[in-house]
Amino acid sequence: MGIPKIKNDQIYTYGDYATWPDDERWELIDGVAWNMSPAPATRHQRISRKLSTEIDTFLKDKTCEVFAAPFDVTFPDFAGQEESDIRTVVQPDLSVICDPDKLTEKGCTGAPDLVIEILSPYTSKKDLNEKFRLYEREGVREYWIIDHESRYVQVFLLNDKGTYDEGTIIPPAFLKNDESDKIVNSFVLREFSVNLNDLFIE
After folding, report:
1. Which of 24, 99, 102, 182 has its CA 20 to 30 A from that of 62?
2. Is the Cβ–Cβ distance between 99 and 23 less than 8 Å?
3. 118 CB-near residues (< 8 Å, 6+ apart)
4. pTM
């Protein structure tokens, strides 16, 4: 399970983050900086592209939009906080935002409606733990975790108590010629679904 390098020698802000080199990819969670290098693998990128294309097609003529990393999602500590003082900024693999007021020239401020993270050996621990707790705390209504090694998707929905349910696991996709379809349905994007047999074809 991947454990990325972190900077926890001080509390960092979006102002610090904005000054770091463009060839380095970082995320901040409560002021702790997490290194996102190395770049995602080919399989990871392929799944991201397929999903982004399918979601974008589905959202045609709808108010929601999908954005693929690198795309900054910031979570202020309070309303009206100065952007440079924000301590949490992440780059989900895919973000769906349905409230246009959350969009800025730099990204999204506040919780996306749907976040999708594709696990990689380097970032899996963070996606399953720190980012899971962050998305739950900040009110991301739906969170997908995609494991392309084991070929399954786990979907978490925010309940009335503001916490994620146990999570629905859609089992591993079968080979291309298997007749069994494995379908992932979105709660936030009503009537949108993904066939894992298509998603994991290489």
Report:
1. 182
2. no
3. 40, 44, 47, 48, 93, 146, 148
4. 0.92
Per-residue model confidence as pLDDT tens digits over 70-97: 999 999 999 999 999 999 999 999 999 9
What residues does 28 pair with on adjacent strands? Answer: 33, 89
